[in-house]
Amino acid sequence: MKLIHLVALPVLLASSAALAAPGADLVVSITAPSGVPVYDSGRHTVTVRNLGNRNASAVNLTIQLPVTNTSPTVHIMGVVSGLDNRCAVSGTRLVCNLNTVTRPGTTVIGFDLALPYSTAPLTMTATATTTTNELNPANNSASRTLAPVTVPTTVAGRYTATNQHCTGTNLTSYFECTLFPSSISGFASVLEANGTVSVPIEPTVTGTWTFTAPDRLVISYEDGGNPIGTVDTRSVGDGCFEGPMAAGPWVVLYEVCLTAAP
Fold first, then answer.
1. Do the Cβ atoms of 208 and 219 come closer than 8 Å?
2. Could you tell me which of 216, 113, 218, 215 has the C-alpha nearest to residue 207?
3. Which domain range does residue 128 map to?
4. How confident is the model at residue 246 (pLDDT cuts 50, 70, 90)?
5. Most CB atoms closer than 10 Å: which of 46, 66, 100, 220?
6. 135, 167: one domain
7. For residue 180, what are the CA distances in angstroms to 87, 177, 232?
């Protein structure tokens, strides 16, 4: 007689440790427009997705906009408009109350931002928070370097130039000068067709100018043969160029607007 041995197999039950932890998983991403000229508005969007297994409650989104290097007051480097009605400007940030983001679910906010020419990167960071348990806080933030484009132009011939400038430390954009109009001073100059520069109110000040690219005007000044500095500008449209001149520990930000002269 053959004996049949019955072996009791264990019943595998799912334990609570094997189950996915309950919680929300907010993921933030930023979309920025491409090819927008400096000082023109472009539509920017921030998307918040919930990839968790619970709704995310009381979701707040904070967007740190590009900032100026002015002191003691810091401003938004640019002009914000067209805000989503869930958002408000607070200092240099947008603060948005998104309420509940369901799972799975997505919400998108948008706003317009006009950016100036800057010699330093213009960076925006967005961060979402929730009162619900967050499964992966590492993906709650996103950053994006914004890149407005300069305006191709043509410079050839003889011009009168209106030069406006301000001086400070760590400045990167003439836009920073415009926030403090009393800091701006100026003078007129003449850019001759042969590449030389004269300053009528300062006869000893002379210089040279070169148009080195479709958007780049470089002007070098000297006084009685002694170098003063070089202004390296980019075209921002309407015959105007903006850029810095280094002056020791200081930075002089220029706006140079040209008018064709006979």
1. yes
2. 218
3. 23-146
4. confident
5. 46
6. no
7. 27, 6, 22
